[in-house]
Amino acid sequence: MYSPKKFDLKYPQPTDGLRQTDREEDKVHREAQAEGKELSEKEKEIIREAKARYRLGARRLEKVIEQVYGIHIPHNRIHKYLLEEGLAKEEPRKKRRRKPYIRYERECSISAGHIDWFDKDGIKFCAILDDASRKILAAGEFKNANTENSIALVDKLVEDYWGIMPLEELISDNGSEFGAHRKNGKKEWDSRFKRHIGSLGIKLITSRIKHPLDEW
Question: For bias kind Basic and acidic residues, which ranges apply (predicted)?
Answer without folding.
Answer: 19-41
